[in-house]
Design goal:
With 238 residues, this protein is an alpha/beta fold. Helices cover 46% and strands 16% of the residues. It has one domain (3-214): HAD superfamily/HAD-like (Rossmann fold). The strands form two sheets. A six-stranded parallel beta sheet has the order 3-2-1-6-7-8. Helix 5 crosses helix 7 (114-124). The radius of gyration is 17 Å and the shape is globular.
């Protein structure tokens, strides 16, 4: 038995759920334009090399402090049904079933929130979920702290290594499917790294290293348009 790890945004689904969430939250009035702008500025600073994404995600999670968890969970469920559920790539479902037939464990490895990730795992009948989860106090309110390490970049590799170790599986026997160069720390340690609709940096790296580059297609009806927005905005949900 091996483990097949799957990224979510632009890999299993053909869009960035974080950008879609920000647009919807802004339309519903749950966040202000200033909050959306601040999040975008953090992402811009990350791309310019001024801050790490781990710092940006940690800052976003801290802004949840004091907010009740249940309303965000409920809004995420509606968001999933309305926006995300129709976005699965056709080839993603094929790859999942191939690994399932081979007896592999199927694990979501994503920077998205636990609220969204659990819905994805239920839909796809996955065996495990590795994502960003938020600490909640005894009164059902977010503390502003993450549960465990930030699941991004090196943090993704840390949680993947821990999962494989607990499952008694060597990472050299595992596969990982992703679109993002930020996931390079995981791709470098698994036996089968696969670039799915990769960004330009990952595509270049995959070609240099001889990693497979695959297309899983787009869902029927194409993909929704979204304005520029951060790929991970845990302060508002997915």
């Amino acid at each position: 038995m091996a483990v097949a790890f799957f990224d979510l945004d632009k890999t299993l689904i053909a869009a960035n759920s974080g950008a879609l969430w920000v647009r919807r939250e802004l339309e519903l009035g749950h966040i202000t334009r200033l909050q959306a702008l601040r999040a975008s500025l953090w992402i811009a600073r990350y791309h310019l090399g001024f801050v790490s994404m781990q710092d940006a995600v940690a800052r976003a999670i801290s802004q949840l402090a004091g907010s009740p968890a249940e309303p965000i969970r409920e809004r995420t469920a509606v968001f999933y049904e309305s926006y995300v559920r129709s976005l699965y790539r056709p080839g993603a479902r094929v790859a999942l079933e191939e690994h399932r037939a081979a007896g592999d464990q199927l694990v979501l490895l994503t920077s998205s929130s636990g609220y969204l990730s659990e819905l994805v795992a239920r839909e796809l009948r996955l065996d495990g979920v590795l994502c960003n989860r938020f600490e909640v106090d005894g009164e059902g309110r977010h503390t502003g702290r993450p549960l465990g390490v930030i699941c991004f970049g090196e943090g993704k590799r840390t949680v993947a290594e821990a999962y494989a170790r607990e499952a008694g599986v060597a990472l050299s026997s595992c596969a990982f499917y992703t679109d993002s160069y930020s996931d390079l720390p995981v791709m470098e340690v698994v036996g089968r790294p696969v670039a799915v609709h990769p960004d330009h940096r990952l595509k270049r790296e995959a070609k240099r290293r001889g990693w497979p580059v695959v297309s899983w297609g787009v869902p029927e009806g194409g993909t929704p348009a979204a304005p520029p927005a951060p790929p991970v905005v845990p302060s508002t949900g997915p």
